[in-house]
Automatic annotation (TrEMBL):
PANTHER family: D-ALLOSE-BINDING PERIPLASMIC PROTEIN-RELATED. It is found in: Cell envelope. Residues 55-311 form the Periplasmic binding protein domain. This is Sugar ABC transporter substrate-binding protein.
Amino acid sequence: MFAVRSGRKMLVTTGAFLAAGALITGCSSGSSDSSAQPSNASSEGNAAAGEEVVIGFSGPAADHGWLGAINSAAIAQGDSLEDVDLRVAEGTNDANLQISQVEQFINDKVDAIVLLPTDGAALTAVATKAMEAGIPVINVDREFSSPAAARTTILGDNYGMGRSAGEYICERLGDKPDAIVAEIPGVDSLPLTQERSKGFEEALKTCGLDVDNRVPADFTVAGGEAAAAQLLSAAPKIDAIWNHDDDQGHGVLAAIDSAGRDEFFMVGGAGSKNAMELIKGGDSVLEATVLYPSTQAADGVRLARLIAQNKAMSDLVEVEAPKRIVLNAPVVTSENVDQYLPTAFTS
């Protein structure tokens, strides 16, 4: 069920919020000097290898570019950490199988678990069981239904994605009150899609625009192509399109090419390498994408290590790791694309 991986390399950076530096954990016992160096600090800070910890990781089936990148980045991060023994469960979209994987981690008495649940509600009970057994759980991307199920939660900002996309379109079209804005979301029934659409709509309202045409897809290339073809057929004129997902964006762009349309610009979502290269090239209707970091599970591995070793985040004064972290959703354009390409995922 598991592949055992031990990292034996120097620490590398995957998330700016865990930058290496002097570890700050509070004053040593008996000290009245608030500036005193903590007794367990070292000049190398969190980058220095500590006691080896065993971390279990369970993620989704890699049936989507972003999800594949989530898994590979987590594994690479475990391999890079000298003091981490990362045990990787087979990726799955079966909640029952994932429950059994977590139960195995509990039986193995791992030091921490990083879990991107296929269904947050379905995995809540077993995650709570791990927490009650004294094993900290780091919940990634899809939230559990109870805060008691996780020591720390790391999320992308779905509402913020929509907000960022809408604000970018407002900057480009805010002086055109009659501009036609279209939206191609992912799976409409998912809370993450609903949050993205909500943020988008609310941002557009600030400049007097709204969503004139909206056709949902399903996060797949075929679904993106079908949705875009339907949208383009229904809307003879468009000024801007926001496509929620760069994987389905392959299909969206194919439909645009087939229709011979180029009177609009498009904003993507998630931040694939393919999308960023198109943005950098400047020869596509795609001129921006909104980041939804594929480093979330890798950040989870880094954070699980610190929690299991009773360390804090070195750039914070707080003596414990935070309970909740929401990563930023910046807009990637030709002006800043080189900054984000190194962490872009292949779609």
